[in-house]
Amino acid sequence: MSWDQKHRAILFVALLAVLAVTASDSGATTIAARAPTFKEREAIMKALPKSIRDTPVECLWLRIRVSTRDSRYVDVGGAYLNAVKPGSRCLRYASNWHLFLKKAGTWKIIFDGTDEPSCRLRIPRDLTPCQ
Length: 131
Known about the structure:
single chain, alpha+beta, 5 strands
């Protein structure tokens, strides 16, 4: 293979990589959720189960995402922190859950589970790929 052929091959591969990244990024920007405002977060927190609200802050990191397609829908997930450290008080709080809430006057839990929710719930696609 000559020097020109090698460079053409390298440029072709680089171009394909750029196109692949561009295509994946353009899809990601059309499907995006946002963080809640302070008032939204406050109201959403009130709707969460007591067991989640009462978890010490050093034991749970909450991820709350509001749909940009329909701000009446929210996705709430959590990551339990410090649960595997020996003698940690966080171990008793660790569990596996995933919530979707809908605002109808107040926030209500419409899905509580570990799998993806059913499409019948009509949760916007920027929060979940329904099944």
